[in-house]
Amino acid sequence: MKLNEQSLALDRDRYLIVGLSIVLSVLVAVSLMTGEVSLTLQQLWQALMAGDSSINGLVVVELRLPRTLLALIVGAGLAACGAALQGLLRNPLASPELLGVSSCSALGAVLVLYFGLANLHWMMMPAAGVLGGLIAVVAVLLLSGVASGSLILAGVAINALAGSLLALALYLAPNPFALNEMVLWLMGSLANRSLSDVFFVLPFMTLGFVLLFSCGRLLDAMTLGEETANSLGVAVHRQRLMLIIGVAMIVGAGVSVSGNIAFIGLVVPHLMRPLVAYQPSRLLPVSALSGAALLLAADIASRSIGSQPLQVGVVTTLMGAPFFLYLVVRQRGQAQW
User: Fold this and answer.
1) 87, part of any domain
2) Boundaries of domain holding 257
3) How many Cβ atoms sit within 10 Å of the Cβ of residue 120?
4) Is residue 106, in this structure, part of any structural domain at all?
5) Which end of the chain has fewer CB atoms at under 10 Å, N or C?
């Protein structure tokens, strides 16, 4: 009976992943065709075949392809981190912003803009973002000692400190141009990115995903409580540390090239959890695919709504804030899992 249930669960996951992959493929094609100059499917194919030897090929390969790839990578990373943190902390309202990694990564990138270092080399912004994320996780670990309760408190404190420093940097902006640049970057955007940005974040993202997906047994065991997980032979302390470092690598790298993009890590796991029978390890890959699809759809919308392109972070916030309020109302008076 148990083997039959496991087999049915695997079949459901397989169908779900295939369905999400089809949706992602369609969104990738739409993303590559959408822009100031819209392309048909045939023109897109010809542009991809021609590479950068034609105008359409240049637009697709140099402008739209990096943007599309980053939407896929960052969206998948944020959603997988949200699913992992909600499972680890057994808190359905946990998100990648909880540990302060997003804010510290944003602070690192904003400081580069503030001091005008972004013009020295294109790697200055992403490198500062990743460094900020790593500093955040080290500070949280030193403050909390990797205990679940202290982890949240330390994350909130680091998040508040980074937020106040960000506000101070904006207040002391050397000129209106720098202020405008910092504010727009903080809103979150995937515009004007290159393949170099993709290649820069890829190693951090890959390592982060490996660490996250290797902690599936920990997440399943944590649904029974930390003591039970220890009694089942799970190395809770070591795997929790691996998971937090994985989150820091993914979120730090993502924020360093896209700015702050909120709510993907909160909304997606909630939408997908019932479809995988509330099992955290099965939620990780499904959330990653769904997060990639959601951020890509939001990026397409940001280019299509209105006469001027919107920042993608504004679109995700407009989608996520009402959903967050719905969750708060629904959770009121209910026991958290």
Assistant:
1) yes
2) 1-323
3) 10
4) yes
5) N
- Strand runs (DSSP E) across 128-271, as ranges? none
Nearest to 299 by CA among 322, 319, 270, 323: 319
Question: Where residue 80 sits, what CATH number does that domain have?
Answer: 1.10.3470.10
pTM to 2 decimals?
0.88
H/E segment holding residue 196: helix 195-213
Q: Is the pLDDT of residue 337 over 80?
A: no
Which residue, chain included where needed, has tokens 């101070």?
A: 168
d(CA 108, CA 200): 16
Q: Which H helix or E strand runs over 183?
A: helix 176-186
Q: In the chain, pLDDT over 70 holds for what percent of residues? A: 94
pLDDT single digits (tens) 123-176: 787 778 778 887 887 888 788 765 656 777 888 888 889 889 988 988 888 788
Question: Within a domain: residue 329?
Answer: no
Alpha-carbon dihedral angle through residues 7, 13, 14, 15, given to the nearest 10 degrees? 110
